[in-house]
Amino acid sequence: MRKSSGDSSSTTRRAKNETVVRAYSIPIRVDEVILEFIEEYHKLARSALQEILGARKFTRVERKQLRDKLLKDWNYASHYVDSAINQMLSLVKSYRRKLKKGKKARRPRLRKKFVYVKSTLFSLKGSTLRITIIPRKHYLEVNLANCPHILPFLKEVWAGRLKLGGLFLFPDRLILNFVKSVEFIDVKDWMSIDINLTNVTVLAGLTVYRFDTCELYHIHRVYELKRQKIQKISAWNKKLSEELLKKYSERERNRVKDFLHKLANKIVEIAKERRMGIILEDLNRIKERVVNSSKELNRKLSKWNARELQRIIEYKAKWFDIPVIYVNPKNSSRVCPACGGQLIPQEGRLMKCSCGLVEDRDFIAVLNLRMWGVRGSPEGVGGFEAFANDGPMKTNPYGVMAIEKQRIGIKFHEITLTPP
Length: 420
Ligand SMILES: [Zn+2]
Hints:
InterPro entries: Cas12f1-like_TNB. By secondary structure, this protein is α+β, with helices and mostly antiparallel strands. The protein is 44% helix and 20% strand.
């Protein structure tokens, strides 16, 4: 959940009943009956989708009619009909919501064959997961103890700290969703994170961590060049070129994902060790992100990576009960963190203020983000003047540190992650 940057006390930041989900896939082998069941469910869901899309209105009456109709030749547990209707209904709802907002939206279609198995349709006894296919007749049993990576989560389920949520049943695999309800810890301090094209800068107490993300950029470049080569093939073999494109996009995505997960793990580790909450930039609040390159592609990539990284950081943090807030990052690297004055760009990444501050722009950004995250953004308190009049000491102790960084002893850590 995103929160405005206005509220200031740390206790009001707690959301109620927040949950985080971690999904894991395990390979399974199913018999003929279950294969046919997955096939039949797919058909059922498709006709439900058509009915809902075609219906002028879909109230409780239409819902009951559809349910009765679908149940007529349904030989499996009837709960599956309900979840198919629910699943399709939410697909159609989000499609219509997008249309209403004037966004581009594709008419929903069902491509992948899978069954949503809600919690009333399975039970977990010890490590045995038992899914009802036909009540009292046919079940799918999976021993989760055979999957070593699942065992730690299973132990948490046994201890009552996690729940096993609805499952996704595919012909060859099962997706388990472990649900945790978040109980935010009382944090000692807040760390702020600024995401750029070539680095991610983190301010945690008196330490600045700068993670080099050039590797990420490198991955995108490599695959960009590969794609250009493949495009040439398409003139004489369209199918082959499409297949190759798909394969390489997938590889690129996986390598990027791998890198982002590593980076997020490091950051969340720091937050956990130091018992700090996390302040992120609310990227929805800025239309254009200014980066060091004029290329449109770079801009798009950095924005995509930034959002994806934030998403991963947020769920990993919440998995450890660490609170995460978003602040409006507008002008975060253009306003002096010490006096609120306008900064003037110098050579390299340095910024200068008339008050005497000369500092690295990423460092300035994390200082401002932390200050605004803890105290509210300039907009929240009526413009930059309010900060200037408040005096540097009161507004941002870090602002003074920015000037006397060496003396107070802020440490810079340059970190290069090992390439995936
Ligand atoms: Zn200044």
